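Q: Got a minute? One more chain.
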Amino acid sequence: MAGPQWAVRCQDIVKTYDTGGQIVTALNRINLDIALGELMMLVGPSGCGKTTLISVIAGILDQDSGVCELFGKNLQTMSSKHKLAFRAENIGFVFQTYHLLPSLTAAENVSLPLIINGMKRKPAERKAADLLDRVGLGSRTTSLPGQLSGGQQQRVAIARSMVHSPRLIVCDEPTSALDHQTGHNVMNLLKEVALHEGRALVIVTHDARIFEFADRIAEMDDGHIVRVRDQGK
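A: Always. Here it is, folded:
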C-alpha cells in the first residue's frame, strides 16, 4: 500500500530573531510533515512559535537553517519572482488581522487572487460572490470592509484564501472572531476543501471548540513541537 503524499515537509527548521542584540530562537529544530487531504492544527501558548512556523511554511519568512518543502519544492532555492508565482498559485493565507483592502468591496477583495493569476475581473468577482454566499455573506458582496463586523471581515478573508483553489491553505486563528455556529460552518467548509484531492490545510488556533475538525494536532511550546496527536479519524 502506498504511503501518504506530502503537502509540507519540514526538516530541522530553525528560525531566530535579533531583538536588540539578544538572539531569540522562535523555532528550534522543527520537524513536521503534513499530508495531502489533511487538516493539521498547531496549538500552544502565545509566543511559542506557531505563527512563525506557518509563515515559514507559506514562504513569507525564510528559516535560518533546515529545509521546508511544499509539494516537493524548496521555496528557499527559488528566485523571488518564481517564489511569488508559486505562492500565488498554490497557497492561500488567512491572516489574523485580515489584511483586507479598505477601498475594495468584499467581492473585490475576494477576487484578488484570481485576478493576480490572470482571470478577468468580471468572472473573478462572480466566483468571489458565489464563495461569499457559501460563507454566509451573500448579501454583503458590495460592502466595504469598514461596513462589516470583525467576524464578517474574517469570513471575507477566509473566502479570499480559498477562491483560487490553492493546494495549501494556511490559517492564523480563523474562528477567533466568530460565534460558535458560524465558526463550525466555516470549519465545515474548510474541511471540505482540505479533503479535496491534492489539498491540505494548516490552522493555528487557541479555539478548543474546533479541535474536533483536525486530523492531527501538533502541540508547540517554546519553539518546539512537543507532541503530535492523532485524532483517530
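A: The beta strands are 6-19, 22-35, 39-43, 65-70, 73-74, 91-94, 168-172, 200-204, 216-221, 224-230.
Q: Perfect, thanks.
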